[in-house]
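Extended Data, panel c. Modelled sequence:
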Amino acid sequence: MTAKIIEFPGQWWRAPEATPCEGVFSNAALTLVIGPADGSSPQCSAFMSADETLADLHRLIIQHFGWDDAHNYFFSQGCDRYEDPLLFATQDRVSARCRRIYCAADVPLSRVFSRPEAPLYYTYALPNGRELKIVLDDTVALKLFG
């Protein structure tokens, strides 16, 4: 099998102001694997557009697991945190950006899944909530590049 190397301009994942932006997956369909953060079962697959936001992913998760939408949530990836829009509304936007906290409704999936080295975690029903790990299904990428 031969791998294709696709070169991108330096820091293509960041807009000039270092705000969340679209990555390489714009308008693509993503296959996500969602399961408990500890790696136990059950796991499920979900198909979403790369242009959908983390808030859209939250709605898909609560619908799939049959949870109500009565709790705050946040996503985290590396040093970045993506909060429930209601939780984020209490933040000062300037200081939030300095602390790398973003609104989940403003961040497309293309941005977070353009960084495959850091898995995405989802925490729901704070403070003693549920934690899920969300990764791209890499078997799809292998099929694309054959």
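The two ends are 7 Å apart (CA to CA). This feature is highlighted in the accompanying rendering.
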